[in-house]
Amino acid sequence: CNKDLTEITPDSVLTTTDYYKTAKDLDLAVIGIYSSYQSRKPTDYILLELPTDNLYRTTYTLSAGADDVDNMAITSANQLFATFWEASYSGIFRANAVLANIDNPKDYKAKQKEQLTGEAKFMRALFYFDMVRLFGGVPKVTTLLEINEAKSTPRASKEEIYNLIISDLKDALATLPAKADMPKGRVSNGVAAALLGKVYVYLKDWPNAKTYLDMVTGYGYALQTDFASLWKLENEDNAELIFAIKYIEGTNGHTLSSAFLPFGGKTGIASSGLESVFPSWDLHKLFETGDTRKAASITEFYKTPTPANSPTVWFPHVSKYEVKHLLNSSGIDLPVLRYADVILLLAETQYGLNRPDLALAELNKIRSRAFGNATKNYTPADIATAEAFTDKILLERRLEFAFENERWFDLVRTGRLLSELAFEERGYNPTTQTALKFTLQPKPHYVLFPIPQRQIEVYNPGVLAQNQDY
Amino acid sequence: AGYAQKITLVSRNVPLTEVLKEIRKQSGYSFVYNQKSLKSARNVNLNVKDLDIHEVLQLCFKEQPFTYEVLMKTVIIKEFKGEKPLTQQADMKVTGTVTDVKGISIPGVSVRVKGRNAGISTDISGKYAINAPENGTLVFSFIGYATQEVAVNKQATINVKLKEDSTALEELVVVGYGTVKKSSLTAAISKIENKNLDQIPAGRFETAVVGRMAGINISTTRARPGEAPIIRIRGASSLDAGNEPLIVIDGFPGGSLDNVNMNDVESMEVLKDASSAAIYGSRGSGGVIIITTKKGKAGKPQLNFNAYTGIAKAMGHDDWISGQEYYDYVVRYQNREYVWAGGDPSIPVWGDARRPAAYQVNPVIKEGNVNWQEEVLETAPIQNYNLSVSGGSENAKYYVSGTFKDERGTIRNTAYTSYAVRANVDLKINSALNMGFMLSPNYNNRRNLGLGIEAMVKYPPFVAVKNPDGTYPKARDYWGIVVTGGLNPMAVLDATKNYTNAMNNVGEIYVGLDILKGLKLRSSVGANITYTTNDVYQSAFGNATNAATGSAADTRNFNLINENVLSYNKSFSGGHSLSGILGASFQKSKTRATAMGIVAGSFSNDVIETLNNAVISPTLTRTSKTSWGLASYFGRINYDFKEKYLLAASMRTDGSSRFAPNNKWGFFPSASVAWRVSKEDFFKENKLVSNLKLRASYGVTGNFNIPDFGYLGGISDVYYAPNGVLTKGQAQTTFGNKDLRWEENRSYDVGMELGLFRDRINIVFDYYNKNTSDLLYLESIPATTGFITSLRNTGEVNNRGIELEINTKNLTGAFKWETSFNLTRNRNKVVSLGGVNERINTDTFGMSWILRVGEPMFSYYGFKSIGVLQDANDVANSPVLAGSLPGNTKYEDVVKDGTINSSDRVILGSFHPKLFMGMVNDFSWKNFDLSIVMQASLGAKMYNFENEYYQGALAGAMRRSLVETQWWSAAEPGDGKMPGAALSKLTWQANSDVYIEDASFLAVRNLNLGYTLPKAIAQKLRMQSFRIYTSISNPFMLTRKGFHGYNPEGYTQGEIGGLNSKPGYNGGSEPINRIYTLGLNVNF
């Protein structure tokens, strides 16, 4: 009689005791890895764009700690770093759980096991790539850890993490099917090649970078002629998107479109917005006349939907992800890797391999796509020195990937963090033609974000070392 | 000291020698007699109070075969040699009426002539007629009343008033699985009887008992119809497993006060210390509240009708500004913002293109005079009717009642309606067997609020409530960007139909068997069945997405219990008495829940509001089932020696499905002792101290509110959209723990009960120390495990405090005045958090709550403000937060590093009150009675987010008290404390003490004035009694100057409920209501 009462099994909840048994289970578990990345992605801009000179906070509350990030008062207690760290390791865990249980099922279809392994490894590499770029060497976890093991696992070196990323991506490249054989929004071999190329650029390993970046073209990716078309719901899954995280309005949407939308909403877009951040004048003023990316990234004037006779006012706001959506549940896919990125990375690679001519050619592909013609193309004189080339690459990447979370990484890896972020011009008043200049005071050690204090505290004492100067 | 010549003595069938001993003790008289000859003495029945010794002796020897003589202070007893004392004299007829002290006649009272066996009973109107000797004695007896003897003395009419049997100390107190005489209690238990509690207009049971017991803090955090207050017994100790007491309704553990109707309540006992709660084992940690409902009594049927009706008025803020004053404020506000942004404030505020739209002020706002608070609040009617019938014979007793309660909310479109029936039936089959059942079906319906009050009252005053065509205008219809884009609050209120229905029944059937003398078995099967539904529909005009929306959810719970208790009770010679219980209990709960949502915007029209008029959403619709089981064995033993030394010990063992495989069974022992000092021989009776008891107890209780299957690593559904198709994936979302167990609460209590001046003053004092360890705690673990937290048993919290209850009978004459006062001081402290020393939880809007070893749980944590930065110079020369501007708060540089950053944060107080008190004063004069209930709380701090919200970014309505104190410029610095509002820096000042306010209060919770019709008149109207009463709830409340909330107990984020709790947060808790009622209570 007692056993009926004390030993009950759940009716509605799957548990670790009855899961990871079939091919279907493992497939669902792989979806779980994507889901993890999908949910982190929409708020990445708070750490990757807000501290830079691209965005600044409005008076609307965003999230605790965002003020400090915006004003470059970076501390290890800031919970935004902890949230990012935790979300990323949650994704890594899901990938590890798939890899740890991949041999359980006996009912795989042909190549299915290889495909799932490849996806898990790719996603693990993607998470680690973010982590190593933000925090440096982090604990290298490739198995399922018990709490005590975890508490005594210290940080690995940056090299060890990069080695893991590279080996995972190479495995993924070898085992993943081609794009045509994979559902949109799940990775294929071309994605692995592109990311591998990007990783090598970060390592300034130009020959390897070239090998893999060159490979990407062969998988059938291409630039869209119209930059603005990249941000249209009807043009999702276009050939320029090597890998985009997919969303569905209403049932599986993201908050990014709403975050950038004025509070009062916009006719045809959404009934209201969160107005969390505004684009800085710093970035805004860099768009030259004729650059089609400006209108696709920033909208300058705004008219509230009501009253009907309301005036149109100067109110610059980010419009890159501005599609019709339900508040906080937008369906526009968020790119992780675009072919444009591969082209600009290739430009850097060629420059690194001492082929400025080829570098210029790549750079100008982006330039001429943006302006619709070659009139604003750079000339060899523009990139005569390495400094000058870096200036142009940074500028072009900033304009091309505005609000796509590349700016912070680019500033760090080119060593430009301190020089570029000394000031930020924020709100601009067109009548007085002045902008509010804000002093940011970045510190040299900001090239790595602090290891979250609340993570350090749960480790055995002294195990999880803090980055320098925090 | 001389001896009293007056004797007070109660003896029932006591040997004469014992009685004489007692008389000797009280009077100092000595007795001379022959032991042998006294063997023929009859036992004595006496009930005298303050009677002269000579009269007492007469009574003692009246029926004895002895006579006596008094010489000085010596009584000599001799054998009686004369005639028999009771010679047959002629009987006479005696008639009369027997009533209780209130004058209500008692039917069924046994009346007999002393010395004769035969007797009669009073009739239904309490009348009797009997033949008795002229010098005989009549004996009146009735269960529950003190037996009374009256000498006939040739009177033909003798009217008798019977007193209730229980002096305060003889009163029975319900403890777990039994009752104990109050004088024999060894534990800290508070008891409240429902005298007139059902005549206090309170929508809920808890509200009526506010302020009446020490150690029990009942906070009305939300003044919404039907909303349950928070009850804390001796402080909160659990982080994640809840701190709610276990509710036991007529023996059914795990009920809800939702199902308790005050009209049906006989008494409420609160088991406060672990020694008394330990009999409930793994569920006793938060204390135990035992509700005993009314039972039928043998006699003619009693019909009681209780009704009251009245109105409630909300107590709102009285300082909203409008019209010109509001316009002036917005102009200053916008100019200040503009200056901060580097603008020139001399540019006209409206119609000049040089000034950005975001800093302009539309003159339309001068025209508005709408006070939204007045619009959304209304005077609301309340009513409550209860009809009950009780009665029965010795073999079948019943109590049946029906209640209808209707409470409209003072915020428009909110309401609570309840229908309840109760039936308690007890049957005696034969001398050994009895059985009975209890049923209490009830149904209630709540209409909930669509929008928080803070959002409604902040709406700009220039917006009309309604357009002439019946539509609702919005702020943005008048003016863009600067004002809120939110909908008209009245539109949301009118459009939102959010109903929660609950159907509940706590029922039980039992069989009792008297096995041997003193040995009884009680076996019962009970069930608590609840069925709750929630239906929401919001019309398009009241929804920000401009499309109708809706949802539906049903939850069904079936909680079944079987309990078997064997009880034994025996007195041994020499003054030993022993009682004990042995029991087994088996409980199982099954819950099934369904939730349904719709695809956004899919409602076809506004006519049909159920979800069949929309497309059901696949991700928002699900069913789920869960269950738990509990097997328990328990026992208790009570030992008592001469009512002087009392000892109790209990043990329970619980096996729960919620505990992990390694820890299936828990043990919960307790022991307590008491010493009634005043019963000792050496303790001479004196005028000052009439009762003194010392007691001490120790016990272990548990908290089993672990999630069902919480020890298993759970796999949850997660979603992704490959190919743009919503696809379900799965992922492990909780980290399993095969050692998961209950929280353990070890506590001791020492208490003293003191009666002074013949118990006119009764004092109960308790000190307790309660340590809760193995806290069910979502412990932070390295994220590299894949999880941030894991449900574990770590950490420890201590609550210790003192409780004082003083009950006094101040005046006992025609004008009576009784006071009961209670005071509680509780100190809450985190002892351990497992591996870490502190955990900080920061709210989106900036405030942080900290768990730090050595500090009260969830203290506020942030910057300490020391003024306002006055100008650029001040900013440059003070330690400031990065980005500070003139008008921002200046903070204390705690670590003295020349800048303000997160390391300068300190503890800023907490929501825990330092002291809380209650006082009830009862007055009566002739037929009038008045009761005043007061409650006070000192030292609690509230984080008044409400203020921050009003001061927030968008121009909405504003309170004068929040304008006047602000910083405007160096020339107009305000009160020096309140920074310039509505900066982008609000998050910073939110993480400081700027919005922390002292929530101490003193409130008169209830005034109840009644008039009882004189008995004679009532009886002419064929009533037993008739009381008419009027009541005012919350007639008076005093809060600290500078307190801005609607309700000093108004915590909108609840109390402690997990690591991310934000206790003390007030985001617009609804105004409390002043309720005026008129009621009547009639007894037939």
Structure summary:
The complex is a heterodimer of chains A (470) and B (1084). Chain A has 470 residues and is mostly helical. Chain A has helices spanning 2-6, 23-40, 45-48, 66-70, 79-101, 112-135, 147-151, 158-175, 189-202, 206-217, 256-260, 281-284, 292-297, 339-352, 356-371, 386-400, 407-413, 417-420, 453-456, and strands at 14-15, 55-57, 241-245, 277-279, 298-302, 313-318, 334-338, 423-429, 434-439.
Structure description:
- The complex is a heterodimer of chains A (470) and B (1084).
- With 470 residues, chain A is mainly alpha-helical.
- Chain A has a domain at 256-332.
- Chain A is built from 19 helices and nine strands.
- Chain A has helices at 2-6, 23-40, 45-48, 66-70, 79-101, 112-135, 147-151, 158-175, 189-202, 206-217, 256-260, 281-284, 292-297, 339-352, 356-371, 386-400, 407-413, 417-420, 453-456, and strands spanning 14-15, 55-57, 241-245, 277-279, 298-302, 313-318, 334-338, 423-429, 434-439.
- The mean pLDDT of chain A is 93.
- Among the domains of chain B are: 6-79, Phage tail protein beta-alpha-beta fold (3-Layer(bab) Sandwich), CATH 3.55.50.30; 91-162, Carboxypeptidase-like, regulatory domain (Immunoglobulin-like, Sandwich), CATH 2.60.40; 168-300, TonB-dependent receptor, plug domain (Ferric Hydroxamate Uptake Protein, Chain A, domain 1).
- Helices cover 8% and strands 47% of the residues of chain B.
- Chain B contains 13 helices and 58 strands.
- In chain B, a hairpin with a 3-residue loop joins strand 33 and strand 34.
- The longest helix of chain B has 18 residues, at 323-340.
- Mean pLDDT of chain B is 88; it is low at 83-87.
- Classes of the chains: A mainly alpha (470), B mainly beta (1084).
- At the A-B interface, helix 1, strand 1, helix 2, helix 4 and helix 5 of A face strand 32, strand 33, strand 37, strand 38 and strand 45 of B.
- Strand 1 of chain A pairs antiparallel with strand 37 (714-720) of chain B.
